[in-house]
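Hi C.,

You asked whether I'd gotten around to modeling the 375-residue construct. I have! Everything is below, sequence then structure, no commentary in between.
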Amino acid sequence: MLEVKELPLDKKNLKEFTKFQINLYKGNPYYVPPLIMDDVNTLLPSKNPAFDFCEAAIFMAYRDGKPVARVAGIINHQLNKMHGHKEARFGFIDFVDDHEASKAVMDAVENWARVKGMNKIIGPLGFTDMDHEGMLIEGFEELGTMATIYNYPYYPQHLERLGYKKESDWMEFLMEVPEEIPERYSRIANLVKDKFGLRVIKYKSRKRIKTEYGHALFHLINESYKNLYQYSPLSERQIEYYIDLYLDLLNLDLLSLIVDRNDRLVGVGIALPSMSRALQKSRGRMFPLGWISLLKGLKGKNDRVDLLLVAVHPEFQNKGVNALLFQDLIPYFNKYGYKYAESNPEMETNAKVQSQWEYFNYRQHRRRRSYSKKI
């Protein structure tokens, strides 16, 4: 017998909700689990400041008492108000290869959204762009990353069978790290510095970064990404939350800040050693020994680096500012022995962003999709 339950958003249920995914992918060599408490805190109203303007619900399907599917429903009221929409989101979706199970949880989240007055549902998406988004449709035999979703190849087939259509695609790229900065990038970077009076600044103190540029960094992200697909501006409470959550994790050599003549932040590049293997070893747990694997991932030998974020102020976009970021970061990538760099997901329509990789040896190795359906 198949049964679907809406579970209260408390720690006990959210741990069960998160562990279902980790157990579903046990032994899969490409899946990278989240930290359990990260996903719990994302869906916990008392922890995630996105609940100031969002609401959410989680659903799990059980067959004979055993969990077989899960999904979260999210309504971002801020974004709906901005665009005059009545859209819900679905995310955190996982299911065994059982069409009855996937249909059951999607029926539940669609009905929840409909009762809330929504007329369309989109996903997989989170509360904001800081959460995982996009269902994998190509690249199932590529190692996943900390910042992206991995799913089995049957997932898209299940959604399409339920009437979901393509909304938008993201592409991802794997680059070989060059031993030298490409000559064209060096030339462009020097021209940009001279023409606009820009410079890269580096820090040795995380406390100073938080004080001097912590808020500016996330305000720059808001300004840079404001016209991107489904972007939800970060609130001041979210900014405070992410400053505390992320800035302490960074290797400061891999943080590149670009400022103008007046020390205004106009560009940022953030990279992090790949945590994929470390998270696989920890299976999402910090304790009792998961933290050792994670520490090794941050500090130990690693041949891959994740380009988590690049943001450039609209005033300087398409003017070669990205060349400054690579001019700064490539020597550090070589210093730490990184051979490959993972791009973040990029909209398939954003040819200008994708063109920045043409001076590297690269391949497009993953594609992911958001789906939508009228309800």
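If it helps when you're writing up: The radius of gyration is 21 Å.

Thanks,
B.
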